[in-house]
Amino acid sequence: MADVIAEIVKGVIALFIIVDPLGNVPIFLGLTEKMNKEGRRKTFRTATLVGLILLLCFALAGHEIFSFFGITIYSFMIAGGILLLIIAIRILISGGWKETVASSESIGAVPIAVPLLVGPGAITTTILTLQTSGIVVTLASVIITFGIVWAVLHFVEPIYKFLGKTGSIVIARILAMFIAAIAIGYILEGLKYYLA
Q1: Cα–Cα distances in Å, from 180 out to 6, 92, 99, 167, 196?
Q2: Potential cystine with 81: which of 142, 161, 172, 187 (Cβ 3.0-4.6 Å)?
Q3: Domain segments of the chain: what residues?
Q4: 3-class secondary structure, 119
């Protein structure tokens, strides 16, 4: 039992670092700045639910999903990396990701749930946890991680107030550089496989 708990803790830490809801707070707020409080909460509920369902699907049937569509984790890494790179460039140029005409549900699903919360890194981490630690540990890790994600998104406004507008813009642009670097890493990892 102690071993299982240790594996779950390890899985949660690994997944939480990749999902990084705290680091994305300025981006989340930039995406929802024109919404009222209820609209923002609805968006974040959608994001949490979509992200949780997606990762649970990959935890239960990741290899089967890829096989069905005839794609590999490497092609997924390239596609996800390109999408993340576009997001990073838009944040660096404009200071945020602006959606002029979009419902709270659509912004919650894309880009907040995918690829900001559930990107290639989160999916890859989930599949690797499944292979190394089994289904129970993987499911527990995903559910606990998204419980924490929900808590962060629920208290996103106090977190934002603590950071301030200028602090949020600075953090968003610094994090955009990291997102761009992660995106390039995914693209290169995928290309390395195909070029080899």
Answers
A1: 32, 10, 20, 20, 24
A2: 187
A3: 2-195
A4: coil
